[in-house]
């Protein structure tokens, strides 16, 4: 079967005037237009292509790589808005359509939006939706506390930043746990800090507890090495000073320097910390 919105590995069946016809071994065929035909090929070769609908709603193959595929999230630019909806640049000749009903906020030409790509069952077309939450489900979680997860920054709230967890679940990074600038669409790694009784996920952008000490201790050591072995901050410094210099919380900083001090790697002085020679 040839799958729309996905990469397919297909066999070259025949060379024709408009391009190569490719097949899946189940009598399904799709055209690879001449502009995408490789310089060297043989009938029977296998080739990986992305398949979508062309301007005449016919399946067509391309060797171009789109910015998003079916079942995925991505930040896309809106090229134009018509009376039918918005048309987004996803790196292919034909733009990706986002109906008005699938827009969380009315899209504007030139704007960038986080969207999900799916196959509309009624029209059998690939479409985009910026109502990303409806494609996430926390009823049956596939993650547990302390799991490392892949994150996509979704949208802000009054108490933090909503994130998409492993492309499946919705999570929240609280404002107190954000120690660097993040923007909608950013892809990050995180840790499941807590799973609440209602399956809501609290996410941390850094390691938790004792798991947090080693990587942050290494970060502090690197900063010390890059600054002639001295940093003008210590356990009495303000949270703001620590955040500005190291992008970590004061609690995390104190744990990390405590570990370094215990291992005799640093000295804690009145006006800062110093790397031991």
CATH architecture of the largest domain: Orthogonal Bundle
Mean pLDDT: 93
Return Rg in Å: 25 Å
Put simply, the count of helices is 3
The chain-level structural class is mainly beta
Q: Bin the strand percentage.
A: 35-45%
Shape assignment: elongated
Descriptive notes:
There is one protein chain. By secondary structure, the chain is mainly β. It folds into four domains: 7-62, OB fold (Dihydrolipoamide Acetyltransferase, E2P) (Beta Barrel), CATH 2.40.50; 73-133, OB fold (Dihydrolipoamide Acetyltransferase, E2P); 148-205, OB fold (Dihydrolipoamide Acetyltransferase, E2P) (Beta Barrel); 210-275, Winged helix-like DNA-binding domain superfamily/Winged helix DNA-binding domain (Arc Repressor Mutant, subunit A), CATH 1.10.10. Helices cover 13% and strands 39% of the residues. The strands form four sheets. The chain has a five-stranded antiparallel beta sheet with strand order 3-2-1-4-5, with no helix packed on it. The chain has a five-stranded antiparallel beta sheet with strand order 8-7-6-9-10, with no helix packed on it. The longest helix has 14 residues, at 213-226. The termini are far apart.
């Amino acid at each position: 079967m040839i799958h729309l919105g996905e990469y397919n590995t297909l066999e070259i069946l025949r060379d024709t005037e408009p391009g190569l016809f490719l097949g899946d071994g189940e009598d399904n065929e799709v055209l690879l237009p001449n502009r995408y035909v490789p310089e060297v090929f043989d009938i029977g070769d296998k080739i990986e292509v992305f398949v979508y609908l062309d301007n005449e709603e016919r399946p067509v193959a391309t060797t171009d790589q789109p910015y998003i595929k079916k079942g995925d999230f991505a930040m896309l630019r809106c090229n134009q808005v018509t009376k039918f909806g918005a048309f987004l640049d996803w790196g292919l000749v034909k733009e990706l359509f986002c109906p008005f009903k699938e827009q969380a906020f009315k899209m504007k030409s030139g704007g960038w939006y986080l969207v999900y790509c799916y196959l509309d069952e009624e029209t059998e077309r690939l479409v985009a939706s910026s109502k990303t939450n409806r494609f996430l489900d926390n009823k049956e979680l596939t993650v547990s506390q302390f799991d490392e997860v892949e994150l996509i920054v979704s949208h802000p709230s009054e108490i933090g930043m909503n994130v998409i967890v492993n492309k499946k679940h919705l999570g929240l990074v609280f404002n107190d746990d954000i120690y660097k600038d993040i923007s909608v669409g950013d892809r990050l790694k995180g840790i499941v800090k807590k799973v609440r009784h209602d399956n809501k996920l609290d996410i941390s952008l850094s390691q938790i507890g004792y798991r947090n000490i080693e990587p942050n201790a290494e970060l502090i050591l690197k900063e010390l090495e890059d600054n002639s072995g001295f940093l003008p901050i210590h356990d009495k410094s303000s949270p703001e000073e620590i955040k500005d210099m190291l992008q970590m919380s004061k609690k995390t900083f104190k744990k990390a320097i405590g570990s370094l001090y215990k291992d005799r790697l640093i000295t804690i002085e009145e006006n800062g910390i110093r790397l031991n020679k």
